[in-house]
Give the backbone structure.
Amino acid sequence: MKKTSFNQLHKDAGGKMVDFAGFEMPVEFSGIKDEHLTVRNGVGVFDVSHMGEFWVKGSNAAKLVQKLTTNDVSKLSIGQAQYTCFPNGKGGIVDDLLVYYYEPEKYMLVVNASNIEKDWRWVVSQNSVGAELENASDEISQLAIQGPKATTTLQKLTKVNLNEIPYYTFVTGQFAGVDDVIISATGYTGSGGFELYFRNEHAEKIYKAIFEAGEEFDIKPIGLGARDTLRLEMGFCLYGNDIDDTTSPIEAGLGWITKFNDNNDFIDKDLLLVQKSEGVTRKLRGFEMIDRGIPRHDYELADKDGHVIGKVTSGTQSPMLNKGIGMGYLDKEYSAFGTEIYVKIRNRLLKAKVVKVPFVSLL
């Protein structure tokens, strides 16, 4: 298994380590619910160094990124980031990712850990325009500091005014005495905060500085378990669960990152445009349990007579709502908000209803 630069620090903090996407990563420290509420109410630190980072450079960088991704990179200004996905040429999704417009003719693509090699092969195979590519995944560490106390904690360590970094923008500056740190506001929890990208050799220094700065707020390390429950409360997709090579962005409710502008000629544009105009046979929807029960990945969704109408892609017990929540693909006739559906749990039909996401409103 690969190890991030924080591996020993996780073990020292009592992290329960597991194999995740080929990396030895902490799934929990003090417990998933405690860590979840720490992020919702205070500040927590996630090691997300297992994520992949690709640089796309040169005069044709924008052309390649535009071809590869469904969103419209021509709308980005330097210092802005964009959520998007790689369509796979067959209507499915290679991966979902973030595009950072770093400087003229230079973009950073941040991809999922489980897909680094697959994504790299895909990007290289589609580079018919001669863009310069660099896979920097093994050289870059990343921390996500999330929660309502994150800004106050991190402001102690930088002269960059963190309140002037709007959602989905970033700056590069000095942090904890380290130059050229990317400070980004693209969080995956819904509770605010920042992601920091820096070279591996600075990892321990930055990590310890953050924990010292956040001590007054009872800052805690957070594992992958709480990362999953936090993102699910916000209705954010997880690759491999809610989206994959067999799901289209239109089915997955990602039409908002699929831009059919005249100048945006991306892979699968025509196919996805047909889906958008003619509709799809299934839709990814959120649902809340009415009966007591916890939906889990791959549980069947059914109508009142037990006929299968879909499948759960993500599910958990929401620490904020104290009820079961989930997402899943439903036949379109059952996808209207408010529709009663049933989750098959151990041969029982437990009632739920289709709801809009996010499940939790934090404003």
Observations:
- The helical segments are 7-12, 32-41, 61-68, 116-125, 150-155, 203-213, 224-233, 269-278.
